[in-house]
UniProtKB/TrEMBL annotation:
Its EC number is 5.1.3.1. One of its GO terms (cellular component) is cytoplasm. GO terms for biological process: pentose catabolic process; pentose-phosphate shunt. Substrate binds at residues 8, 64, 140-143, 173-175, 195-196. This is Ribulose-phosphate 3-epimerase. It comes from Streptomyces toyocaensis. The keyword Metal-binding applies. It is an enzyme of class 5 (isomerase). It holds the Pfam family Ribul_P_3_epim. The gene is rpe. SUPFAM superfamilies: Ribulose-phoshate binding barrel (SSF51366). The active site is at residues 33, 173. It comes from the Bacteria. Its cofactor is Zn(2+); Fe(2+); Mn(2+); Co(2+). CDD domains: RPE (cd00429).
Length: 228
């Protein structure tokens, strides 16, 4: 699969979300960070904003739920128009059941891991997912510095995906920029969430194109790409 770029609207101007969605022309997804001030110490947006944004853009929405009780709330984000819904395994009560419900409602099911959460205990769950998100910062705030100690975890996850022959996307989120995206792609990631690297640029669409080119070049030379 070709690398995909998912600009995070957490770094966009919330008063102009429709315009900001259009500004990131060429993006594969728009990454929507949903925070509840419980699972993470910040509060952002919810279902009504996702509904409005889904009507305002043709770019599919990738909703990242950093919330408690995702088993209860995640299906509502599919109904609101999200094309992909990510829940945190640390917050989910029944992750397999939840992933199946998200899929049954017509969206891609994704599971996120905080930096301290190992991937290995969830190896048997991977076939139930369409994407796995490795957080490369602590969830809850935009603009954090990339945690390079997550690179071995990305590599181990890619090895597990290859081991089982899965068509599972591997997303990274946190501090992804022109200076870090190549490391992530080389380690095995193929979906890249970028916030300030896109919306902090003078031309967000050009930033998307530049990041994609970097990821493509790094993937082409990566040792894992032949198994993908």
């Amino acid at each position: 699969m070709a690398p995909q770029i998912s600009p995070s609207i957490l770094s966009a101007d919330f008063a102009r979300l429709a315009d900001e969605a259009k500004a990131a022309e060429g993006a594969d997804w728009l990454h929507v960070d949903v925070m509840d001030n419980h699972f993470v110490p910040n509060l952002t947006l919810g279902v009504p904003v996702v509904e409005s944004l889904a009507r305002a853009t043709d770019t599919p929405l990738d909703c990242h739920l950093m919330i408690e009780a995702p088993d209860r709330w995640a299906p509502q984000y599919v109904e609101a128009g999200a094309g992909s819904v990510t829940f945190h395994v640390e917050a989910a009560t029944a992750p397999v059941r939840l992933a199946r419900e998200i899929r049954a409602k017509g969206a891609r099911a994704s599971m996120a891991l905080r930096p301290a959460t190992p991937v290995e205990p969830y190896e048997d769950l991977l076939p139930e997912l369409d994407m796995l998100l490795i957080m490369t910062v602590e969830p809850g705030f935009g603009g954090q510095a990339f945690l390079d100690i997550m690179l071995p975890k990305i590599r181990r996850t890619r090895e597990l995906i290859s081991k089982h022959g899965l068509e599972l996307w591997l997303q990274v989120d946190g501090g992804v920029s022109a200076s870090t995206i190549e490391q992530c792609a080389d380690a095995g990631a193929d979906v890249f969430v970028a916030g300030s690297a896109v919306y902090g640029a003078s031309d967000p669409a050009e930033a998307v194109r530049a990041l994609r080119k970097q990821a493509e070049d790094a993937t082409a030379g990566a040792s894992w790409a032949g198994d993908h």
